[in-house]
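JOB MANIFEST
job_type = single_chain_structure
chain_count = 1
residues = 178
[input]
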Amino acid sequence: MNAQTIHWLKRRVLLLNATYEPLTALSARRAVVLLICDKADAVHHNEENPVVHSAEAAVPVPSVIRLRNYVHVPYRARVPMTRAALMHRDRYRCGYCGAKAETIDHVIPRSRGGEHSWENCVASCAPCNHRKADKLLSELGWTLRSPLVSPKGPHWRLLSTTTDLDPVWLQYLGEGAA
C-alpha cells in the first residue's frame, strides 16, 4: 500500500441520519460502501479528499454523508465522559486559570473520594494540575471558571468518540461543538 492509500484508510466521515442528526464518525471505506449501495448520499465533498476508483465507477470520498432512510436511535441518558469530550466541553482551556489545557484534573481528588464524572472533572493546564495535586479548591482558595455540567445533545456522543474533527462537521454538530 502506498502512503495515499494508508491516509485514505484513516480518514473519518461524519454520518448523519435522514433528519441531519449526527450519528457517528465512520471510516471512509464504510462511507464509500454506503454510497455505492445507495444507502446514503454525499452531503459535503472536500476537493482535497481522494477519489476511489473501481472498474465501473469513481467515487470521491466525502466529508459528510446522510442516510437515505431514518434510523431510530435508542434513548441514552448520559453522554460517556471521555478525554476528547471533556476537552471539547471545556474548549481546551484550563478550568482554573484559562490557559491551554493539557490534562484532566479531578476537582475533588480521587484519593479523597472524588468520582470520575462530568461534575468532578475539568480540563487543566499542567502547572495548575501539578500545583493543585490532591488538595481541595477551598484549601487553595481557587474557584472554577465555569460550572461543571454533563453535556447534552446528540453531537456530544460523537465528540466523546473522536479527537480529530473535520472543521466541515461543525455546521452539522450544533451549538457547543465548536
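[summary]
Strands lie at 12-16, 22-27, 40-45, 51-53, 58-60, 62-67, 103-106, 121-124.
The first strand starts at residue 12 and ends at 16.
exit_status = 0
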